[in-house]
Amino acid sequence: MKVMGASLALAGIGGAACTVQPTETIVPYIEQPEELVPGKALFFATAMQLGGSAIGLLARSNEGRPTKLEGNPEHPASLGATDIYAQAAILDLYDPDRSTMLTYRNEIRPWTVFVSDVRGILDNERPNRGAGIRVLTETVTSPTLGNQIKTFLEQFPAAKWHQYEPVGYNSATVGAELAFGQPASTIYRFDRAERVLSLGSDFLLRFWQRALCARLRRPAPR
Amino acid sequence: MPQIFHHSTNTLAKLSIFGGVFIMLGAFWVVAELNRSSYNTGQDIDRQQPVQFSHKHHSADDGIDCRYCHTAVETSNSAGIPPTKTCMNCHSQIWADSPYLEPVRESWRTRQPIEWIKVHDLPDYVYFNHSIHVAKGVGCSTCHGRIDLMPAVYQASSLQMEWCLACHRQPERFLRPKEKIYDMEWRPENTTAAEIAEGQKLKDLYKVRNAHILTSCSTCHR
Questions:
Q1: Residues B219, B35: Cα–Cα separation, whole Å
Q2: Cβ(A90)–Cβ(A66) under 8 Å?
Q3: How much is the pLDDT for A216?
Q4: Binary contact (A16, B31; C-beta < 8 A)
Q5: Eight-state DSSP code of residue B208
Q6: What is the distance in angstroms between the Cα of B44 and the nearest Cα belonging to chain A?
Q7: Among positive and negative, which fits the CA dihedral A137, A138, A139, A140?
Q8: Which residues does residue A162 pair with via DSSP β-bridges, in sequence order?
Q9: How far apart are the C-alpha atoms of B158 and B154, rounded to whole Å?
């Protein structure tokens, strides 16, 4: 009994008084961004593109660190919904392989070098109207970027622009052309259907199908 | 046959059996006192900071309001330390060559933040929200003591759970009108019956929850 009491007391001493909390530091900003209140999250309206469609997002940022992605309720297509790719995209921001700078054949180059090199190449190509130039992008849905590339192609009419999408909706677009006579994005009206037969189509997977269909079936909760 | 044990062993046996209980109690008491000592809690210990910032000079002598620097006290869960820019607002012009301010200028020049020692440091298993305390009528000096008279900030309260509970069990003893929150000379505690009655009125006015909810575990241990 006495031994138990003594060991308890010693443990108490060790736990209570001998283990002192280590000193912590507070490290403020040097220049704090104006909207940022440390401890409160900031939300940024942004968009994420995947496979040729873009989804509106609200990115939650805690002291400059993005912590969560949710849908933007004001985005007319998604109405605040996200799909699994949008939810997983937060990890893209912490991907150690994420490119943070310009590279030329795996070696880092400053922007100025890129500009001067490209200018030289373009000047060489002007006589043959850019026949040796190829532009490789993913599916471009941005009207701004599309316009810029179009302007570039007007200057170099013989250049070629390749859009490559490893997993995209080309088949769906081609199928729509077969069905409706023009390339189109299909909006499914499940509220008008009694039965739905899906042959290899995961229509609940991508946000714009799911969100639009869900909201067409029942009114959005308020 | 001669006795193996001396006659005094009788007294020793009686003493130790009864004394053992007292020794155990004594050990517990020692541990409890050590637990409350300033070695463990950090109370009343002047902390040396990287910059010899005097609240006495800036607050009391110069009359700068707390919120000029601690901008997030009313809005965020963390009250925060001002960024270097806040110091440089004045000290790029006043005392611009003082050696006391060399760490601040160096921080501004090299864009490295100043690493302040965290004086009021709660353990990580406690969730503390600063803004709710300010919003409900807890004044600065109630918890932080007379910061405006401190040349170097020390922790005026033990910050142990029993200290927090003293208010969370009886909020009317520590509330003050919201206009007086930043008044450092206002009484930190309501002691007379009349003052406590005032505190009770404020508790109802500011909708401070009653002790049953304030002392529920998950209020702080989330």
A1: 24
A2: yes
A3: 53
A4: yes
A5: P
A6: 15
A7: negative
A8: A136
A9: 11
Helix axes B84-91, B102-110, angle to 10 degrees: 120
Strands A53-62 and A41-50, bridge-based pairing? antiparallel
Does the pLDDT of residue B73 top 90, yes or no?
Answer: yes
Beta-sheet strands, E only, within chain B = 116-117
* Token pair listed for A105: 């054949």
Mutate one of A3, A35, A37 to test the B interface: name it (highest B CB count within 10 A).
Answer: A37
pLDDT number for residue A208? 55
CA B73 distance to own-chain centroid: 15
Residue of B nearest to A2 (CA): B20
Residue A64: alpha-carbon gap to chain centroid: 17
d(CA A73, CA A55): 11
Supply the pTM of this predicted model. Answer: 0.77
Q: Strand order in A65-71's β-sheet?
A: A41-50, A53-62, A65-71
Which of helix, strand or coil describes residue B120? coil
- Give the lowest-confidence range in A28-32, A83-87, A218-222, B148-152: A218-222
